[in-house]
Please model this.
Amino acid sequence: MLMNQEYDSLDCFVLILVGLPHMNAILEKPVHEALKQRIVVHYNYTGLTEEETINYIYSRLDAAGGARTIIDEAAIRAVAGYCQGVPRIINSVMTNALILGTQLNKTCIDTEVILSACNNLMLG
Model:
């Protein structure tokens, strides 16, 4: 969210507010009405689409020098479904999946490993 505070047609400062989605609920409270009225641009990040998530995972694998065949397509779609486009969660699931896959001597990460990685994150 961007805020531009003007005083007698002179721009005094620009404030950029960045926060998690519950920040919107905080701004809805009557006590913050004056602040909310001064917000010029309001943007809500909705996360990556399934296709963007797939491309994101492949780009991370490419950057690490890994082969794309290390994970099957159904497993990638499972990651996309679980993580709902949040890159931080995608990274956590994939890191856990790669660790679990190594521990289980898997040559390819499948949906079973992804589900185990997701369960580990919910427990931990």
The beta strands are 2-7, 10-16, 39-41. The chain has two domains: 2-41, 50-123. The longest strand covers residues 10-16.
